[in-house]
Specification:
Arc Repressor Mutant, subunit A, 296 residues, D-Maltodextrin-Binding Protein, domain 2, 11 helices, 20% strand, alpha/beta, 3 domains
């Protein structure tokens, strides 16, 4: 198995298309096809199944993919290990993230990386946690920032950057603002605004409100956090959001925090594939540990 064949295989798997993989790799499509066929002959199995709109991995291809990614990572690590001592980290990092983390936690990090490691290029890819986990595992992302429960994730390494307190917010004058104690029963009478499923704080709140019911409590999915905050401020409903996201609105009085706290703690973390470290990623991990944690 040649590294170039494995690299082409991973690109086709990521793009689900020989044509798109060829464009990404700057190869002729015939070259991509030849690489895949050579790899299939070497292994004695078909790796892709052709569909009307692209290709998908066979069971053999699915088994090969994590090994191919690992071999390519190991090859990159080996090259880096024998590179000139003291050479500055360089290269591209595809980084999964969440809109709330990027907007309220990562701008100092991005600035620090740009200043200290100008040859490292970051490409941020917003999405919910579950998609980020899978994209890191299959090699589409190099790493990812998430807000989650800090549980161990199969095949992934992580560093916890900071705790993420949550605030239940409403518009000023909401009927529950002056309540001595807000109960789950009272909250179930309210319209709740949230992001799409797969976001840890939305899923946590939904679980609390659902309780023992068979059907999940209905969440009105209105989009990103800025849209949620606008809807809450205009009296459309209430929402549970990271405190850092609503800090300015609480200070200005545009939103108010209801007297209720959810059980369970969430954290902002940086995750990467086990064994997938290279100099550019190590630089990001070190910078994130310092800048995000110190940012509070």
């Amino acid at each position: 198995m040649e590294n170039r064949h494995l690299s082409t295989f991973v690109a086709v798997a990521r793009c689900s298309s020989f044509t798109r993989a060829a464009a990404e790799l700057s190869y002729a499509q015939s070259t991509v096809t030849a690489h895949v066929k050579a790899l299939e002959r070497s292994l004695g199995v078909a790796l892709f199944e052709r569909l009307s709109d692209g290709v998908r991995l066979t069971s053999g291809g699915e088994r090969l993919l994590p090994y191919a990614v690992g071999i390519l990572d190991l090859h990159a690590d080996a090259r880096a290990a024998v590179a000139e001592v003291g050479a500055a980290p360089e290269g591209s990092l595809v980084v999964g993230t969440m809109e709330s983390v990027t907007s309220y936690r990562l701008m100092p990090l991005i600035e620090h990386m740009h200043l200290r490691f100008p040859r490292v290029r970051l490409a941020m890819r917003p999405g919910v946690c579950e998609r980020t986990y899978e994209a890191i595992r299959d090699g589409s992302y190099d790493c990812g920032f998430v807000i989650d429960d800090a549980a161990e994730r199969s095949g992934l390494e992580s560093v916890t950057l900071c705790a993420e307190p949550l605030s239940l917010v409403a518009a000023p004058g909401h009927r529950l603002v002056e309540a001595g104690e807000v109960t789950v029963a009272e909250l179930r009478k309210e319209r709740v605004l949230g992001t799409e499923p797969g976001c840890a704080y939305r899923d946590l709140f939904e679980s609390v409100l659902t309780g023992q019911d068979v059907e999940p409590f209905p969440i009105l999915e209105v989009g990103p956090t800025d849209t949620i905050k606008r809807g809450v401020a205009e009296g459309l409903g209430i929402s549970l959001l990271p405190t850092v996201v609503v800090r300015e609105e609480l200070r200005s009085g545009r939103l108010v925090e209801l007297p209720w706290s959810v059980e369970g703690r969430l954290h902002t973390r940086l995750l990467w594939r086990r064994g997938g470290e290279r100099p550019a990623l190590r630089a990001l991990i070190e910078t994130a540990t310092r800048s995000v944690a110190e940012g509070g």
